Amino acid sequence: MNYDLIVGFGCSFTEGGGLDNPNVYKFIKNINDDSIGFMHPDVLNFKYKNNFISYLSELFGCEYINFGESMSSNDLIFQKIYDYFKGNVLTKRILFIGQVTMFTRQHVYYDYAKKFIKLNRTEFEEPPFYGSAEFKPLHDYYTNYLSFIYNEDNVVSNLEKNIELYDNWLRYKGVDTLWLSYDGNPTQFTESDKFIKFNGDNMGAWAEKNKLRIMDIPNCPVPDPHLNLEGHMEAAKLMYQKIKNRKTKVI
Questions:
Q1: What's the pLDDT at 89?
Q2: At what angle do helices 52-60 and 229-244 cross, to 10 degrees?
Q3: Is the pLDDT of residue 121 over 90?
Q4: Would the pLDDT of 248 be above 70?
Q5: How does pLDDT run across 12-47, given as a tens digit for each residue?
Q6: Of 34, 38, 183, 185, which one has the greatest count of Cβ atoms within 10 A?
Q7: Is residue 220 in some structural domain?
Q8: Rounded to whole angstroms, how far apart are CA atoms 104 and 84?
Q9: pLDDT beyond 70 at 194
Q10: CB-side exposure of 119: number of CA atoms within 13 Å?
Q11: Is residue 160 part of a domain?
Q12: What pTM value is reported for the model?
């Protein structure tokens, strides 16, 4: 199977999160340079070139675009997928990789800030609230949502429906697809030609069991749960083999 382009969507686990931490970067590269900090070009380039989307593109010998974005919720991920594919005239043979993320995350419009806000954690002193009185109503909303409204089974059911709908839409456009989930237990989501499990697990549990996280690197100074280089490489290999072993393309 040959592709011209791989396009990846997801959260920081697709983006290469953690690899853009300068302390992780310097530890892996075994360098000591105080001039290298957050947002340094070398660090950002290291992240973009060392994730399972980039490694998968090497295996297929094609170009790639990684739209993974830190702290993305599933509604934001689906919105970005829609925005990219709705207006594009698809003249290339595209492989789409879609990673769904933590079920509890939300992406909501907050009128006070006049913008959409990523809701990922409940600590009031942490982003996006920063202990600000102006953001207390948003914090109250999110904590109440998680306490009284959120139901994991319902969220996963809706997520499965969205995956099915978006997958059919992408296939209609001639795009080959492969989906995965970072979150969830082994009974959530079903392995298929278009959905990959990692030895029976979703990605997060697989990475933890196999010690493929940054925090699993011996003596690493940063306890980061994102995939390490080996984790990204192994994930790319499993995706590659799954796609190559299909009897026919998904599209």
A1: 63
A2: 40
A3: yes
A4: no
A5: 999 999 999 999 999 999 999 999 999 999 999 999
A6: 183
A7: yes
A8: 24
A9: yes
A10: 25
A11: no
A12: 0.95
* Domain presence at residue 238: yes
Render the chain in DSSP notation, one character per residue: ---SEEEEE-SHHHHTTTTTSHHHHHHHHT---TT--TT-HHHHHHHHHSSHHHHHHHHHT-EEEE---TT--HHHHHHHHHHHHHS----S-EEEEEEE--TT-EEEEETTTTEEEEE----TTSTTTTT-GGGHHHHHHHHHIIIII--HHHHHHHHHHHHHHHHHHHHHTT-EEEEEESSS-TTSS--BTTB--BTTB-HHHHHHHTT-BGGGSTT-SS---SB-HHHHHHHHHHHHHHHHT-SS---
For residue 73, tell me if it sits in a domain. Answer: yes
Which pair of tokens denotes residue 111? 């009128």
Model confidence at 87, pLDDT cuts 50, 70, 90, reads confident
What are 108's two structure tokens?
């909501």
The answer to whether 145 and 106 have CB atoms below 8 angstroms apart is yes
Q: How confident is the model at residue 127 (pLDDT cuts 50, 70, 90)?
A: very high
Residue in this structure with the two tokens 């913008």, named with its chain if needed: 115
CATH of the domain at 96: 3.40.50
pLDDT of res. 90: 76
pLDDT at residue 247 greater than cutoff 70: no
Torsion of CA 211, 213, 217, 222, to 10 degrees: -140
Cα gap 134→242, rounded to integer Å: 48
Mean residue pLDDT across the chain: 96
Count up the domains in the chain and report the number: 1
